[in-house]
Amino acid sequence: MKNLFCLIAFAFCFSDAVYPQTGFDDFVNDMEKEFNTFKDESLREFEEFRNRINEEYANFIRESWRGFKSSEGIAAPVEKEIPPVVYPGEDEGAGEETAPTPIGYDKVIPAVRPEPQPQPPVEIEETPAPADTRLSVEFFGRTLKLRLSERNRFTLAGCDENSIADAWEILSGRDFNNVIRDCLTVRDHFKLCDWAYLLMLDEISRSFFGGKCNEATLLTAFIYCQSGYKMRLANDNVSLFMLYASEHEIYGKSFWRLDGERYYCFGSCPDNIYICNAAYPEEKPLSLLIGSEQALALQPTEPRMLKSEQYPDAAASVSTNRYLIDFYNTYPSSMLDGDFGTRWAMYANAPLSEQAKGELYPVLEDAIKGMNEIDAANCLLNFVQTAFKYETDDKVWGEDRAFFPDETLYYPYCDCEDRSILFSRLVRDLLGKEVILVYYPGHIASAVNFSEPVAGDRISLGGKDFTICDPTYIGAPAGKPMPGMNNSAAKVIMLE
Questions:
Q1: What's 296's DSSP letter?
Q2: I want to staple 314 with a disulfide (CB 3.0 to 4.6 A). Which of 47, 116, 308, 387 is the partner?
Q3: What's the whole-model pTM score?
Q4: In the prediction, which pLDDT does 3 show?
Q5: Which of 307, 482, 486 lies closest to 409, judged by CA?
Q6: Which of 83-87, 296-300, 376-380 has the lowest mean pLDDT?
Q7: How would residue 9 be classed by pLDDT, with cut points 50, 70 and 90?
């Protein structure tokens, strides 16, 4: 279409000198007809290619099942947390500038960055359908309208290979094109991450079939596959399961290793299952990174009063989005490339919700107005140090659990990692400064790259100095690490 517009614009520039008006109109009409012919031929080629690969995939389903046993899930790291300490006030040596501790790149956990989301291997052609053939589905408060009707309903004759392959061939017909397009449109419009998209497909399928069943599982798997994601079908001769490939290592969840890649069951299934290890063209694994706020419906939570002890103006009544909190409760905790530090980066890089920003940020901006960057950072630091109650995850949750920034604002208790994640978000958003997380055994702090000289403990990394800011060292200013923390033994977690 872009090429057509360029050609029309080019012709228009010379139309007065070369073509009479009627000739120019004929030229434009001919170009438009030529483009439409080209577009129709391209769509036919895409459709033929997609039909062929789905036919081949159905044939694989009839043949390629083997028994597999799951591997035990990776246990989340368990450490004895270091409790908060109250800063005693100015101590000996206060105000003295010390040499920064150099950190080698062998102790640096690189930043984790989301890649473009998977896409269908070929364009999916939209098909004519009556306007009233739409399914309404509730998804975290939003009502989704999808082109899925009774004529799309199918029944699995059994859970054997041929029954599943027969149903896959039905799903591959043009009648299901529109719902795939609708799902991808919803994903992009509401900025759903891969995990949210998978949850949405499951909700759509279960709503359509009236609950969890083999047909619902197959519909979820089919749309997920056609959307460009890597999945495998599995069964135990009674129930059908969908396994999704993940580039993340998910804590506490059994997996099956196929062709060197981890696959996890969406839901639960037995350890011993039969898996069809058939690949689909250009398939990509799921990512658990969240690059933007999930545009779920808004249901404000009960406001919570949060205030700094040292800076009275830094006091705000803050609520977040209940639907976002509910979504985060489903989020699988994981790491990338075998490095557990990437887990905290995933949480720290997630944005704060617009609901929380709208209530908290104007107050904090007013509180730091007119301050230099170090004083402003100290104000934000004291806010995080004193506005929240500390408690260990083990006591509150029975296991280790990191919080997204909105969760720290919502739940009554948090620990050192949650505070550092929130502080890093506030400093990046409100001060525009580069922040890293600093991991000591049993403890996490933050460090900020100030443009002004700062007295106190600093880390030198890549030619930049980062000043330690510890949100769990209650009342301590920038440059003061909690007692007993050794910077030379620390690891650095890079953030976006």
A1: P
A2: 308
A3: 0.90
A4: 41
A5: 307
A6: 83-87
A7: very low
Query: Given the structure tokens 């129930």, which residue do they identify?
Result: 239
pLDDT in tens, 144-199: 999 999 999 999 999 999 999 999 999 999 999 999 999 999 999 999 999 999 99
Distances (CA, A) of 446 to 19, 340, 356, 434, 467: 69, 17, 22, 11, 8
Token pair belonging to 27: 């030229």
Three-class secondary structure of residue 431 per DSSP:
helix
Other beta carbons within 10 Å of 33 = 10
Distance CA 377, CA 468 (A): 11
| Residues 6 or more apart in contact with residue 383 via CB below 8 angstroms | 306, 307, 308, 311, 314, 364, 426
Token pair, residue 364, equals 């904090």
> What is the number of other CB atoms lying within 10 angstroms of the CB of residue 210?
9
Distance of CA 300 to the CA centre of its chain: 22
Q: Cα dist. 293→203, 410, 417 in Å?
A: 20, 16, 21
Looking at the DSSP bridge assignments, the partners of residue 469 are: 446
- The CA distance from 403 to 411, in Å, is 9
Per-residue tokens: 303: 């406001």
Please state, in angstroms and rounded to a whole number, the distance separating the CA atoms of residues 315 and 487.
32
Residue with structure tokens 């509910």?
326
Residue 22: the pLDDT is 62
Where is 225: in which H helix or E strand? helix 214-226
SS3 content of the chain, % helix, strand, coil (to 5): 40, 20, 40
Predicted pLDDT at 65: 94
What is the identity of the amino acid at 3? N
Q: How long a stretch of residues is the chain? A: 496
Q: 129, exposed or middle or buried, with CB in 10 Å at 0-12, 13-18, 19+?
A: middle
**Phi, psi (rounded to 5 degrees) for 250:** -85, 130
Give the span between the Cα atoms of 399 and 177, in whole angstroms. Answer: 43
Instruction: Work out the average pLDDT over 44-51.
Output: 79
Q: How many Å is the maximal CA-CA distance in the chain?
A: 90
pLDDT of residue 13: 42
